[in-house]
């Protein structure tokens, strides 16, 4: 199991545990944990409604792909540590990370 922390739009933090052996994306875990992530493109890196900012643990996640960067760079708020949750797999490198929900369409 991988454990990481999610900060919502109101600044509330919650620890999440997720299996690292099933190939889930961070977006899928956020939705399953009932966070209001729209993910209208279904995880294809086309809508950026699963935008997150990695507050801690970004070094292990690697760099965003060109497709991911194309979406992120068009957002009203884009940070050097911005990522799309649909493009991050639940694996050891996410363990201990802290992330903030940033999707512009999060309700």
From TrEMBL:
Keywords associated with the record: 2Fe-2S, Iron, Iron-sulfur, Metal-binding
The Gene Ontology biological process terms listed for this entry are: P450-containing electron transport chain
Q: Which domain of life is it from?
A: Bacteria
Database matches in Pfam families: Fer2
Indicate yes or no for the key word Metal-binding.
Answer: yes
Molecular function terms in GO for this entry?
2 iron, 2 sulfur cluster binding; electron transfer activity; metal ion binding
Cofactor names: [2Fe-2S] cluster
Q: Where is the 2Fe-2S ferredoxin-type domain?
A: 1-105
Q: Which InterPro entries match?
A: 2Fe-2S_ferredoxin-like_sf, 2Fe-2S_ferredoxin-type, Adrenodoxin-like, Beta-grasp_dom_sf
| PROSITE patterns the record matches | 2FE2S_FER_2
Asked whether the keyword Transcription is assigned, the reply is no
**Entry's family note:** Belongs to the adrenodoxin/putidaredoxin family.
Instruction: Please identify the protein, giving its name as recorded.
Output: Ferredoxin, 2Fe-2S
Source organism per entry reads Algoriphagus alkaliphilus
């Amino acid at each position: 199991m991988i454990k990481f922390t999610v900060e919502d739009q109101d600044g509330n933090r919650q620890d999440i545990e997720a299996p690292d052996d099933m190939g889930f994306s961070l977006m899928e875990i956020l939705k399953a944990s009932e966070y209001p992530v729209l993910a209208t493109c279904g995880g294809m890196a086309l809508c950026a409604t699963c935008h997150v900012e990695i507050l801690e643990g970004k070094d292990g996640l690697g760099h965003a792909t060109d497709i991911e960067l194309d979406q992120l760079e068009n957002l009203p708020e884009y940070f050097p540590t911005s990522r799309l949750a649909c493009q991050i797999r639940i694996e050891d490198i996410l363990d201990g990370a802290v992330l903030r929900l940033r999707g512009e369409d999060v309700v």
